[in-house]
Amino acid sequence: MGHIVEEFSHSDDRAIIVSLEMPESEDGDLAEFKELVTSAGVTIECCITGSRQTPHHKYFLGTGKADEVKDAITQYDANVVLINHDLTPSQNRNLEALCGVRVVDRTGLILDIFAQRAQSFEGKLQVELAQLTRLSTRLVRKHTNLSQQRGGAVGLRGPGETRLEMDRRVINDRIRQLKKRLETVTKMRHQGRVSRERNEVPTVALVGYTNAGKSSLFNALTDANAYVQDQLFATLDPTHRALDIEHVGRTVLADTVGFISKLPHDLVEAFKSTLQEAVEADLLLEVIDVADPERELKIREVDKVLEQIGADEVPRLQVFNKIDLNPEISPHISEDGNGLVNAVWISVVKNEGIDLLLEGVASHFQKGHLEMKVTLPPSEGRLRAELYALDAVKNESFSEKGEFELHLYVAKYRLKRLLKEMPKAITYFEQYL
Q1: C-alpha closest to that of 408 among 379, 380, 378, 370
Q2: 299 with 325: CB under 8 angstroms?
Q3: Domain boundaries, the chain
Q4: CATH class for domain 200-366?
Q5: Deepest in the core among 13, 156, 379, 388, taking most CB within 10 A?
Q6: Can the keyword GTP-binding be found in this entry's annotation (predicted)?
Q7: 369-432, what's its fold?
C-alpha cells in the first residue's frame, strides 16, 4: 500500500480564510496564519474575522458568520475555506455541507504543508503517520446502506464488517506499518548518536521558531547547501554536518524542524525521532528573529515545545538573528550574572557576528576545559605530536635536559579520549584529572 496523504494545496486554490478572537484561545495569530496559507501555495481571496465567547457547537463560527463565509465563497469564487482554529470532525462536516467547498482547519493546513515539504523517506513516513492518525479519528459513515452489519437471516448475511470498519482497519494496519518502519529508522539514528557519544564528539542542535533563519545559519557555519526559503517550514528533514571549532575540535551540528505555536500533537509525536536530536544534544542554539515584533511570544512557544519533547533541560545559547534589520543593534555577546555567554547577536545575511557565535559555543564547551603545564621527556615525541594535533598546545619551551615544557589548554573529554589510546601517558596528567 503506498503513501496515504491528504494534500489539498494547488496553485489554483483560492481561499476564504477565517479567524476569530476568543477568550483564552491558544490558536495562532492571524498574521502567522496568513503566512501558513501563503506557504501552502494558496491564494487568499478574502479574510473574515470576528469574535466569540465560545465555539458554536455546529459550525464553530456561529450561524451568522457561517452564512457570511458562504456568501464570500460565491462572491470571490473561492474553492476552499481555511479556518485558523481546530474544528471537531462534525463541525468540519457541517461547514463543508453548508459551504459546498472543502473546509480545512489549522492543523489540517499545517499537515498539508508538511506533506509538501517532506523530502526524505523518514520525513514522508512521519507526515503520513501524522495524517493517518488524524484521519482515523475523523472517519464517518457516508453510505447509509453500509451503516449496519447485515443480520443473520437467510440470504441477508453480509460481508461481516461495515465499510467504515474496513476503512478503519486498513488505516490502523497502515499506522502499525509506519510505526514499525519509523522504529527501524529511529534505531539507525540512535546508533549514529551512540557512535558520536563513543567518540565523544559533542552535538550542537539548531532549534527555534520556523523562519527564524536556522537553515541559513546552518549553511553559514558549515558551508552546507541546506534548502533555504522565506517561508514557514521550508525544510523538515534533519541535516547533520561536521563543524570544527577552535579549542573544541570536531563537533556535529544538527538542523531541526522549525517550531510554531500550537504545533499539532500528532506532528510532535510523529517527529519525535527527528526532535530527539534536540533532546540528546550537548548544546542548543535557539535561533530568534530579533526583528519579529512577536519574538517574545515565539520564544515562549519554543519553550513549550522543548518542554513537550523533554529538551528543556539541555543547555541553551540564544542566537538573535537578523540584526541587519535594526541599525541600532551591532554584533555582540551577552553574558549572565556568572560571566557565562547566554546570547549572541548576529546577522547571517550580512555575515556579521558569526565569529562571536563560534566564540560563544566554544566558551560553553570550554567550561570543561583544562589548563595545565606538563613536562615530557624527549622519548614522548608521539604524545607531543598528538597534543599538537588536538590544538591543545598554547606555547612550548625546552628545558636544559631537552625536555618538552608544554603549556596546554584542552577539553577534558578530548584529553581522556587521547589517554584511552595512550594509557601509559596518564602519569603526566593524573593531577589534573
Answers
A1: 370
A2: no
A3: 14-115, 200-366, 369-432
A4: alpha beta
A5: 13
A6: yes
A7: Alpha-Beta Plaits (3.30.70)
